[in-house]
Design brief:
Its main location: membrane. It comes from Chinchilla lanigera (Long-tailed chinchilla). It is found in: Cell membrane. By secondary structure, this protein is an alpha+beta fold. The protein has 3 helices and 14 strands. The strands form 3 sheets. Strands 2-1-4-3-6-5-14 form a 7-stranded antiparallel beta sheet. The protein has a 5-stranded antiparallel beta sheet with strand order 8-11-10-13-12, with no helix packed on it. It is elongated and about 60 Å long.
Length: 247
């Protein structure tokens, strides 16, 4: 009888060790495209699944560059990521009117938790109005590689200048470059608000010299960046919920 109990204990300990040794499973995929309307994007969750290294989390990251009247660029990645804490972050790098750049990142630690499918669940386009007298027109386009024959479009109310830049993205299975042109209210080379990393994606922004000169002039005038960042740290949220239930 005692031998049976010893074997049973060893079996239970082995099952517990196996459960603890199991690494996190995450959705895996890369999605890059140009769309007329980002609300009509296809399913962002791919069919692949990967097993993470010990201590890694699941991640899902999406970047959108929107030029009113033209295409919208979407770059998205899902998979495992190391050395991160559980959180959700939304950044509006460049707000409307004119060119819009936004990003969303989710780090989570339950199996297959990086399963968001719809862009509309975290972003809704704002309606902008054109001025009654249209004086500013800018070449407008978003294209992979290089823009050719960008149409000259009237700018919405609130924009003050034209933007032209090259955005380079790498990491998370993405290696892509975009050329972006359009109306903006932000001076200089700041479409991405000088943010160089979103999730596993690294970014660089390169602009013509005149835009760089605008940026230096704006900096000397102590201008501020119109960046909106919303972050929800899930651990803190769960702690607050526990305190509410306790009291």
């Amino acid at each position: 009888m005692g031998r049976f109990q010893d074997l049973l204990l060893l079996f239970l300990l082995g099952c517990a060790s196996l459960t603890m040794a199991q690494n996190l499973l995450c959705h895996k995929g890369v999605f890059t495209t140009l769309l007329d309307d980002p609300r009509n994007s296809s399913n962002w969750t791919g069919g692949e699944v990967e097993t993470c290294d010990k201590g890694a989390l699941c991640q899902e990251t999406i970047l959108m560059i929107i030029a009113a009247g033209e295409k919208t660029a979407i770059l998205a990645t899902k998979g495992c990521i190391s050395e991160k804490t559980e959180s959700v972050t939304f950044i509006q790098h460049s707000p409307p009117p004119g060119l819009v750049a936004v990003s969303y990142t989710n780090y989570c630690e339950s199996p297959l938790c990086n399963k968001r499918e719809s862009i509309a669940s975290f972003w809704k386009p704002e309606v902008t109005t054109a001025p009654s007298v249209r004086t500013l027109h800018c070449p407008t386009c978003v294209a992979q590689g290089t823009c050719f024959n960008a149409p000259l479009l009237p700018c919405p109310h609130g924009t003050t200048r034209c933007y032209q830049g090259k955005l380079n993205f790498s990491g998370g299975g993405i290696n892509s470059s975009l050329e972006v042109k359009g109306c903006t209210a932000t001076a200089g080379c700041r479409l991405m608000a000088r943010i160089s990393e979103v999730g596993p994606i690294s970014m660089t922004e390169v602009c013509p010299r005149q835009l760089q000169a605008q940026a230096r002039k704006a900096a000397s005038g102590a201008s501020w960046f119109p960046v909106s960042v919303w972050r929800l740290t899930l651990r803190l949220s769960l702690l607050l919920q526990s305190l509410v239930l306790f009291f």
